[in-house]
UniProtKB/TrEMBL annotation:
Database matches in PANTHER family: BIFUNCTIONAL INHIBITOR/LIPID-TRANSFER PROTEIN/SEED STORAGE 2S ALBUMIN SUPERFAMILY PROTEIN, BIFUNCTIONAL INHIBITOR_LIPID-TRANSFER PROTEIN_SEED STORAGE 2S ALBUMIN SUPERFAMILY PROTEIN
Classification of source organism: Eukaryota, Viridiplantae, Streptophyta, Embryophyta, Tracheophyta
Cross-referenced CDD domains: nsLTP_like
Protein name per its UniProtKB record: Bifunctional inhibitor/plant lipid transfer protein/seed storage helical domain-containing protein
A family per Pfam: LTP_2
Residues annotated as signal peptide: 1-23
Superkingdom per UniProt: Eukaryota
The Bifunctional inhibitor/plant lipid transfer protein/seed storage helical domain, residue ranges: 27-109
Length: 121
C-alpha cells in the first residue's frame, strides 16, 4: 500500500512539474525549443531529485546522463515562481554539479542566483 501511495505522489508531482514548466515564464512565453527536450528529459529522469518535499540525495546515473547533455542556463532561464513552489533551485544546482556539469556562479536559476564556490584553504 505504501508503495502505491508513493508512486501516486511521484506521478502527481511529475505532472505538476510538467504543467508548471510548460505554463511559460513571467512574460507568458512558452518554453523555447532550444531547451524543451532538455526540460522533458530532466522531468523524466531528475524530478525526484529537485523536489522541495524530499531530502537532498545523489541523482541516478540516468539523471546525470540527461544533465550532461542539457543546456542548464536555458533550463534555469525558464524557471518561474510557480516552479519554485515545488522545485528547490539549490537541489537543481547540486545535481548539476554532482553530475559534473556545474552551473556557472552568478547564473540565475529562477530567482536563485548560483553563488561563487567556497574559498579554498
Amino acid at each position: 500500500m505504501a508503495m502505491y501511495i508513493n508512486t501516486n505522489i511521484l506521478l502527481l508531482a511529475f505532472f505538476a512539474i510538467t504543467g508548471i514548466l510548460f505554463s511559460g515564464n513571467n512574460n507568458n512565453m512558452v518554453v523555447g525549443e532550444d531547451c524543451q527536450a532538455d526540460i522533458l528529459g530532466l522531468q523524466a529522469q531528475c524530478a525526484l531529485y529537485f523536489q522541495k518535499v524530499l531530502p537532498r540525495m545523489n541523482p541516478s546515473q540516468q539523471c546525470c546522463s540527461v544533465i550532461k547533455k542539457a543546456n542548464m542556463p536555458c533550463v534555469c532561464h525558464h524557471m518561474t515562481k510557480n516552479d519554485e513552489k515545488i522545485l528547490d533551485m539549490k537541489k537543481v544546482i547540486f545535481v548539476a554539479q554532482y553530475c559534473g556539469r556545474p552551473v556557472a556562479p552568478g547564473t540565475k536559476c529562477g530567482s536563485y542566483t548560483v553563488p561563487p564556490p567556497p574559498p579554498t584553504a
